[in-house]
Amino acid sequence: MSVPSEAQIQEQQALKRAREEAAIRETAGANKMINIFRGICWVGALIPILGIFIVILSFVIGLFGSMYLILKQNVGGGIKQLIFTFIGGFVALGVWFVVNIAVIGLFG
User: What is the pLDDT along the chain (108 residues), one digit of tens a residue?
Assistant: First the structure.
């Protein structure tokens, strides 16, 4: 087995960086879509009773979007979106719960 030269190692690293940057550019639209659905999730959390369906739908879309990013070799972006989807989804669920408790308390 031959040991790769310094030039070969640098070339491999440059190709790896180029692939990662291409994956980020290729998945920029999907990344934007996930961010938009996360915003819709927050708006849905403010709607009493029916808002839970919006929160769940945007949570599921965020999960599938994150999987898409990971499958398209944008692993860093996919994991970041997955973390934001989980945190945002659970916080939106909490906000939805508080809004419903307030509405039930007010209009009982």
Answer: 677 788 888 888 888 888 888 888 888 888 888 888 788 777 878 888 788 888 888 888 888 988 988 898 888 888 998 998 889 888 888 888 898 898 888 886
CA distances from residue 69 to 10, 30, 86, 102, 105 in whole angstroms, order as listed: 27, 7, 16, 38, 42
Length of the chain: 108
CA distance 81 to 38: 10
Query: What whole-number distance in Å separates Cα of residue 8 and Cα of residue 54?
Result: 51
pTM of the model: 0.70
91: tokens are: 């916080």
Report the 10 Å Cβ neighbour count for 61. Answer: 18
Alpha helices in the chain (DSSP H): 6-26, 28-45, 51-71, 75-107
Q: Which residue type sits at 63?
A: L
